[in-house]
Design a protein that fits this description.
single chain, 179 residues, alpha+beta, Ubiquitin Ligase Nedd4, Chain: W, 2 domains, 2 helices, binds zinc ion
Length: 179
């Protein structure tokens, strides 16, 4: 399925608790309008989406996967995906790595965190990236990937990277690695 580009950040219309219509209003002691349920009064605060990923060092290079889903199908990224509601950032990072490239990863610290405002994605997105080392498993393309491979630092396909955060994290990783 192709993701349609939307100009405006989508807004909720109905209450997630009771299904009634929402209206815009500024709650007491707040400073900006929120979506408030006209029936039960529940205030729908909207928060950024959080993703976690890992730059996995393996066989003298870094593990990249080629995305098999939109957005940015066919482009390259390190394993990365959205947190589930009941896990920590680290758990999400380890899980996404296993799901997307088959490797069991041992995290070796935080590399950097990036954030962007992307209207097509419904607002802000926060991407926390860890460094990691392969600790087992077998490298193979998994969920959301059509290919998984190890590339040497001088083989990183810069023009074909999937996201701004992919570019930023690999740049920061190369720098951190040099020190
Ligand atoms: Zn309601």
């Amino acid at each position: 399925m192709l993701l349609k580009m939307v100009q405006k950040i989508p807004e909720p219309k109905f209450c997630i608790l009771c299904g009634a219509a929402l209206h815009e209003g500024t709650p007491p002691n707040d400073h900006r309008p929120r979506h408030i349920c006209s029936a039960c009064g529940f205030i729908h605060y909207r928060q950024p989406k959080i993703a976690a990923g890992v730059v996995v060092e393996h066989d003298g290079g870094v593990v990249l996967i080629r995305r098999s889903v939109e957005p940015r199908r066919g482009f390259w990224s390190f394993p990365c995906g959205f947190m589930e509601i009941d896990e920590t950032l680290e758990e999400a990072a380890v899980r996404e790595t296993r799901e997307e490239c088959g490797l069991r990863v041992e995290l070796q610290g935080h590399l950097a965190t990036y954030s962007y405002v992307q209207s097509w994605h419904g607002g802000s997105i926060v991407v926390a990236v860890y460094r990691g080392r392969s600790a087992g498993g077998m490298l193979q393309a998994g969920d959301d990937a059509m290919e998984a491979r190890v590339v040497r630092p001088d083989e990183i396909p810069w023009p074909d990277l999937a996201f701004k955060s992919t570019h930023a994290a690999l740049t920061d990783w190369l720098q951190a690695r040099a020190h």
